[in-house]
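As a warm-up, study this chain.
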Amino acid sequence: MAKRGDIAAQDISPSLSKIYAFDHFVHNEDRHLKNFLFREQRNGWVVLAFDYSRAWLCNGMPLPQLPFAPDKKTILARRYLRAELGEYIDRSETDRILQRLSDVKETHILGAINGHPTTWLSGNQKDAIVKWWNSSARTDRIEQIRQGIHNGTYL
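Now compare it with the structure written out below.
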């Protein structure tokens, strides 16, 4: 739709930027073009991402190191979108989502974990998530993503 000109790149840039940064945080190497939904809103368009089946705990805890390899689907989708839309990553939007991830407290994580069906996570998995969330590994990862986007090494 954006390629046909039905959607302006500036309308979807904020959403795509946040998704890109979040995919790095949860180590979603499998983002591809069929994992996006486009929805019209009062003030333009928004892009929604779905399918995180190969992210987060799928990779084990702690999460694998970044950056993604150049042949990963998330990077290939980024290259395609950049070729079609131009440079769409808005660093202020990636900063915004990364700051929100920085602000998530242990109580929020525990609330989410405790809201899951008990069969979804083992006690060891729950403990590993909380331990990682409270560690410098999480904040270091967020800063690494921020720097990589700002200096271009993750783009």
